[in-house]
C-alpha cells in the first residue's frame, strides 16, 4: 500500500530507507538481520510473518522488564514507563503497535498480555518466573506453573510454586526453569497462573533458543537468535467455529478456536477481510497472534462498524504451522 510491489521484495534498500526516515529505524539493516535469525525468507509474506514474531518478543520484553522492576521490588526502582511512538503518523515500514492504515500488529497484543493486571512472566537471562499484581489488594495461595515443550511439542519440564501476591507488587523469581541439557535448539515455555481455587487467572507463552547472549552490541541470545529450527515444527490442526451478531452500529464475530492436534499451533493470526481479501480497518480483535497448546481452547471477538461491510466480509485464520482457513460471512 505504501510502495510499488517490485520494491517490496526483494527489499529495495533505497525505497525502504526513504520510508524509514532515511533508515532511522534500521529496517533494511539491523532489523532485517534480526528477522533473518528466524531463517532467510523467500517472499515478503514470509518476511512479514517473521517480522511479527520479532515485534511480539521485543514489545513483551520492554514491558516485562518494567514489571520486574516495579517500584522497589526489582534491582532498580521504576515507578512508571513512558512509551513513545505507539503508531505511525504517516506510511512507514516500521509500524509499532498499529500502522498508518490502522492495521494492528503482534506488538499490540503481546503488549496487552504483558500489562494484564495479574501476570506471570519469564526472564530470558535468569531463567526465572515472576508474578506481577497491579491490583490494590493482595492475593494469597495463588499457583504459578511453568511448562517447557521441545520442538516436537513434547513436555520436558514442569514446575510450580505457590505465591502470595502483595498489593500493587511483584513476587520476583518465584521459581527457576531448569532446561534439559539435550533440549531442542528451539523450544517453548507455557506459563499459567491459577487462583486459590485452581481457576485459571492468566497465561503466557514464549519461544526460546539455546543461543547464548554475547553482549548488548550483538544480535544474540535466547530471545533474539537461533530460531531457524522453527521450520521443523510439525503440522497442527485448529478447529474454528464462529457466530455473528449485530447492534445498531457494529458487527461482531465471536470465534472459538481449539487445537485438535498433538502439536503446538504456533503464532496464529485472525484476519477480517473484505471481498477483495484486503483487511477491513479499523477492526478490533480481543486477541491475536497467539499460540495454542495441544487441546487448548480460546475465544476471540472481532468488532467493526457495519458501514465497513458494504463489500462483504471474510474471516481468515493463518499460522506458522497450520493450513489457512477462510469463511465467507456475508
Describe what you observe in this structure.
- It is a single chain.
- This protein folds into three domains: 5-113; 116-214, Sandwich (Immunoglobulin-like); 238-328, Immunoglobulins (Immunoglobulin-like, Sandwich), CATH 2.60.40.
- Helix content is 15%, strand content 33%.
- The chain is built from five helices and 15 strands.
- The longest helix has 25 residues, at 44-68.
- The model has no long low-confidence stretch (mean pLDDT 95).
What layout of secondary structure does this protein have?
Blueprint lengths: L4 H4 L4 H6 L11 H7 L7 H25 L37 H9 L3 E5 L5 E6 L5 E11 L5 E11 L4 E7 L9 E9 L5 E10 L28 E9 L3 E10 L5 E9 L10 E2 L4 E3 L4 E9 L8 E5 L6 E4 L2
Antiparallel strand pairs: 1-2, 2-5, 3-4, 3-6, 6-7, 8-9, 9-13, 10-12, 10-14, 11-13, 14-15
Given the structure, what is the number of helices?
5
Radius of gyration: 20 Å
Overall number of strands: 15
What structural category do the secondary elements indicate? Answer: alpha+beta
The general outline is: globular
- Give, in spatial order, the strands making up the sheet with the most strands: 4-3-6-7
Oligomer: single chain
Termini separation: 25 Å
H/E element order: HHHHHEEEEEEEEEEEEEEE
Q: Which spans of ≥5 residues are poorly predicted at pLDDT below 50? A: none
Strand content: 25-35%
GO molecular function: hydrolase activity, hydrolyzing O-glycosyl compounds
InterPro entries: Beta-gal/glucu_dom_sf, EBDG/EBM, GH, Ig-like_fold, Ig_GlcNase, Mannosidase_ig
Pfam family, one: Ig_GlcNase
Protein name: Glycoside hydrolase family 2
Amino acid at each position: 500500500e505504501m510502495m510499488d510491489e517490485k520494491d517490496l521484495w526483494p527489499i529495495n534498500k533505497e525505497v525502504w530507507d526513504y520510508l524509514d526516515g532515511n533508515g532511522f529505524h534500521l529496517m533494511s539493516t539491523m532489523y532485517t538481520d534480526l528477522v533473518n535469525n528466524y531463517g532467510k525468507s523467500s517472499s515478503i509474506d514470509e518476511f512479514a510473518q517473521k517480522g511479527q514474531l520479532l515485534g511480539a518478543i521485543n514489545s513483551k520484553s520492554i514491558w516485562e522488564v518494567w514489571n520486574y522492576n516495579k517500584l522497589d521490588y526489582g534491582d532498580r526502582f521504576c515507578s512508571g514507563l513512558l512509551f513513545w511512538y505507539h503508531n505511525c503518523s504517516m506510511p512507514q515500514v516500521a509500524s509499532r503497535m498499529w500502522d498508518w492504515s490502522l492495521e494492528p500488529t503482534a506488538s499490540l497484543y503481546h503488549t496487552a498480555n504483558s500489562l494484564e493486571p495479574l501476570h506471570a512472566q519469564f526472564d530470558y537471562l535468569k531463567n526465572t518466573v515472576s508474578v506481577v499484581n497491579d491490583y490494590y489488594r493482595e492475593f494469597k495461595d495463588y499457583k504459578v506453573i511453568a511448562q517447557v515443550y521441545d520442538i516436537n511439542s513434547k513436555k520436558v519440564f514442569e514446575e510450580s510454586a505457590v505465591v502470595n501476591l502483595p498489593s500493587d507488587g511483584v513476587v520476583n523469581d518465584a521459581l527457576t526453569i531448569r532446561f534439559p541439557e539435550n533440549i531442542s535448539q528451539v523450544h517453548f515455555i507455557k506459563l499459567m497462573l491459577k487462583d486459590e481455587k485452581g481457576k485459571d487467572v492468566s497465561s503466557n507463552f514464549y519461544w526460546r533458543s539455546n543461543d547464548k547472549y554475547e553482549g548488548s552490541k550483538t544480535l544474540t541470545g535466547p530471545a533474539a537468535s537461533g530460531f531457524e529450527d522453527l521450520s521443523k515444527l510439525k503440522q497442527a490442526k485448529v478447529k474454528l467455529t464462529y457466530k455473528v451478531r449485530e447492534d445498531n452500529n457494529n458487527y461482531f464475530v465471536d470465534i472459538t478456536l481449539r487445537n485438535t492436534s498433538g502439536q503446538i499451533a504456533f503464532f496464529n493470526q485472525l484476519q477480517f477481510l473484505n471481498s477483495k481479501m484486503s483487511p477491513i480497518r479499523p477492526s478490533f480483535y480481543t486477541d491475536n497472534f497467539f499460540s495454542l497448546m495441544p487441546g487448548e481452547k480460546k475465544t476471540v471477538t472481532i468488532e467493526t462498524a457495519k458501514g465497513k461491510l458494504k463489500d462483504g466480509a471474510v474471516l481468515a485464520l493463518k499460522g506458522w504451522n497450520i493450513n489457512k482457513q477462510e469463511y465467507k460471512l456475508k
